[in-house]
Structure formats: C-alpha cells, structure tokens
C-alpha cells in the first residue's frame, strides 16, 4: 500500500466550496488564511492542489460557470417559447440555490482567458434558444442583442431578489411580469401574446 495522499480530491472540493463563499463576499482579493482555517488545512495545500492563487480563482469560477450551464441544459424543451421561459426560470432557480456561485460567475475577478471564455459561454444555452426562435420567426432582431437584454433583465431581477428587495410571496409574480414584458419587446407581432404575465 502506498502512503495516503495528504492533499486529495476531497480536500480540493472543500477548498473550492469554501473559497467560493469567500470570493462571493470579498471578491478575488479574499485572504487565504480564513480559507485554509475554515477547512483545517494550510496554504501549502492551496499551492499543492491548485499551483497558484490565480489558478485557484480560475478553478472557482470555472466550477461555478459549469454548474450554471448544466442547470440551463437540464431545462431544455422542444417548444421554442417554453425553452426560453424554462431557461429564465432555471437561471433564477440555480442562482437562488447557489447564491455564492452566482456572485462568482458574474462578480468582480481577475479575468484569465479561461475565465473570460467561461463567462462568455455561461449564456450559451439562452443564445442558442433565442437564435432558434429568431430563425423560426418567433422573435425579431439580432440574437446576440436579444440574448443580452433578456439576460440583463433576468440577472438584474435575481441580484435584487438575493438582496431581499422584493416582498415575500410576490417575487414569483414579479418575475413572471418581467418575463412577459421582455417577451413583448422581442416577439414578432403574431407571437406577442405567447407569454402571459
């Protein structure tokens, strides 16, 4: 039997989870000392498992972005209208269940090329759905612009919801109204009424 590895995958995942929470609050300049203290290890473990602080930040962001995209992929639908609505709801659900990761994906960080690529790909499922709906004559305009405005509205709502700005019990209805308003702004005339508030 070989010697047990001091810095294993289990420790790596615990560090990623704890670092995600710290980064969501303090941004990319969080201190390593509370991180390693929270999981009962040392800074040498960080460098052993990740190589550098920059690679740790990259691993945190890539993990969060991957989880975000997976949640969207799970909400796919053959119906183009329901596909877009399902993605919006999946984004909100994931963000409320993973608030720290949501802050990491879209918060302040020291971007590496890998982080920039992951952030660019974070809304790829929505872009694909919007592009398909545009090709079918359901939505109008440039799919990139449409996707960015839809996501801006959804992201802004989620950010305010996570900060507690919406009255308890009213957030769902407000979100539905937001989606209906966004839909009306991009739907072709014959599809304007496809989404009710």
From TrEMBL:
Keywords assigned by UniProt, alphabetized: DNA-binding, Transcription, Transcription regulation
One Pfam family this sequence matches: TetR_C_33
SUPFAM superfamilies: Homeodomain-like, Tetracyclin repressor-like, C-terminal domain
Annotation: DNA-binding region: 31-50
Molecular function terms from GO: DNA-binding transcription factor activity; transcription cis-regulatory region binding
Domain of life: Bacteria
UniProt key word Transcription: yes
HTH tetR-type domain location: 9-68
Name of this protein: TetR family transcriptional regulator
Naturally occurring in which organism (per UniProt): Agrococcus baldri
Highest classification ranks of the organism: Bacteria, Bacillati, Actinomycetota, Actinomycetes, Micrococcales
């Amino acid at each position: 039997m070989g010697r047990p590895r001091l810095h294993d995958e289990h420790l790596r995942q615990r560090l990623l989870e704890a670092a995600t929470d710290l980064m969501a609050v303090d941004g990319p300049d969080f201190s390593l000392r509370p991180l390693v203290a929270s999981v009962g290890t040392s800074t040498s473990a960080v460098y052993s498992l990740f190589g550098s602080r920059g690679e740790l930040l990259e691993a945190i962001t890539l993990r969060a972005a991957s989880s975000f995209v997976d949640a969207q992929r799970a909400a796919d639908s053959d119906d183009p209208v329901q596909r877009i609505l399902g993605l919006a709801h999946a984004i909100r659900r994931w963000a409320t269940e993973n608030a720290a990761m949501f802050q990491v994906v879209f918060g302040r960080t020291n971007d590496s090329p890998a982080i920039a690529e992951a952030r660019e790909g974070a809304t790829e499922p929505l872009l694909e759905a919007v592009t398909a709906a545009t090709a079918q004559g359901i939505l109008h305009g440039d799919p990139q612009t449409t996707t960015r405005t839809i996501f801006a509205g959804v992201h802004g709502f989620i950010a305010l919801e996570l900060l507690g700005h919406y009255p308890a019990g009213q957030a769902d209805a407000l979100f539905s109204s937001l989606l209906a308003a966004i839909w009306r702004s991009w739907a072709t005339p014959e599809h304007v009424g496809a989404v009710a508030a």
